[in-house]
Amino acid sequence: MKSNRKGNAALIALLVVIIIVGIGAIVMLLAGRNSIDETEKFQNSSKGGNNQVTTQVTQVTEPEKPKEVNLYCKKDPSFKQTNIKGFTAAASIIGDLDSDTILAGSSMDSRCYPASLTKIMTILVACENIKSYDDTYTFKDTDFTKLVEEDASMAGFKAGETVPAKDLLYGAILPSGADAAVGLANMAAGSEAAFVKLMNQRAKELGLKNTNFTNVSGIHNPNHYSTVNDMLVIMKVAYHNVTCRKVLNTFDYTTSKTSQNPEGIHLTCLLGGRLQGFFIDKNGNGENDDTAKVQGGKTGFTNDAKFCIATYCYDSETEHTYVCVLAKCASTEQSISEMMSMYEKYLPGSKAKIPDATTAAATTTTAAATTAKAA
To answer: How many angstroms separate the CA atoms of 214 and 220, rounded?
Structure first.
């Protein structure tokens, strides 16, 4: 009898263990099913080949609480005024997120129109306010009316389509989808107007001195403005949010399958496409073999804002992450080229030879004076 009781107890204990393990496995499976992926990848295709930067991040299933970080960076003791030949950006800044310093810049606190760089703040506020990345939003016809009138860029969502929050996050950043941005706003706050209030409230909490938003996508409005210094702060706070950093550093993504989009929507990062043929030549040898790589970021354009760009760069030599923000560049190509020049000229330890604008300006002034005398 004693032997039988012991045997039955052991059998029961074994069954209990099996049941507990099984339940645990099911819970883990369900928890991870709709979470943001653990690995963030940004594909930087350039003339030296394809360079993939991979960073391991903590798995996230629910939106994070805002993290307190040091906000405005201070000028580095060796701070330099941006001085690059052929530079067209009206304002520029490059900051070190690990030392909280600004390495170089120009017109850093001058107001400019951020265009679609706005969407960086949009996804940040969305990540801080939605209840779950599994929450969904069903698009209405009226969501698209203003966006069509303004010829805004779209991710490709359709009226009647029900879309999870995580798809909207990628849709707002990779193809710069204004439809996805509006979807996030309606999901998180009930309306775009209510969400914009959250954006401006967050801007005040971050101490942004010259930033005001009137919409979630960057459509031009005279009262919708920021500065490259304020954008550096937004980029910094977004970097400290695991999900925002993941989205901003992703090259492509396919949304969930729906009846409106049976195969999902394959989203490709606009920035990644524009980086084709470019790389940071920090060691100055003309080859794509350097330690500094662009990880991700966002581009923007309106007729009034011109071409804007904000990017992250990681340098494995210094083990630091840097941010570069440019406003009102003359063209898409100039925005990419000037961003690369900022990194090459001002990253610590760079050996790249980037010509100063000072010499060219002096030469032009002298030539103009000679012409005036001859006339």
So the answer is: 9
- How high is the pLDDT of residue 35? 35
Mean pLDDT over 271-280 rounds to 94
* Whether residue 52 sits in one domain with residue 29: no
Would you say residue 166 has pLDDT above 90? yes
Each residue's pLDDT tens digit, 180-223:
999 999 999 999 999 999 999 999 999 998 999 999 999 999 99
Range of the domain at 18: 1-33
- Please give the residue that has the higher pLDDT: either 340 or 38: 340
Length of the chain: 375
The rounded distance, in Å, linking the Cα atoms of 166 and 48 is 33
Domain count along the chain: 2
- Do 245 and 305 belong together in one domain? yes
Amino acid sitting at position 99: S
Integer Cα distance of 48 and 32 in angstroms: 37
Token output for 298 = 């966002």
Query: Is this structure's pTM higher than 0.85?
Result: no
Residue 280 half-sphere exposure toward CB, CA atoms < 13 A? 28
Q: Name the β-bridge partners of 308.
A: 300
Mean pLDDT confidence for 157-165: 97
Sorted by sequence, the CB contacts under 8 Å of residue 110 that are 6+ apart come out as 90, 91, 227
Q: Is the pLDDT of residue 7 over 80?
A: no
Q: How far is CA 10 from CA 22, 24, 79, in A?
A: 18, 21, 71
CATH code of 263's domain: 3.40.710.10
Residue 371 lies inside a defined structural domain of this protein: no
Average pLDDT of the residues of the chain: 84
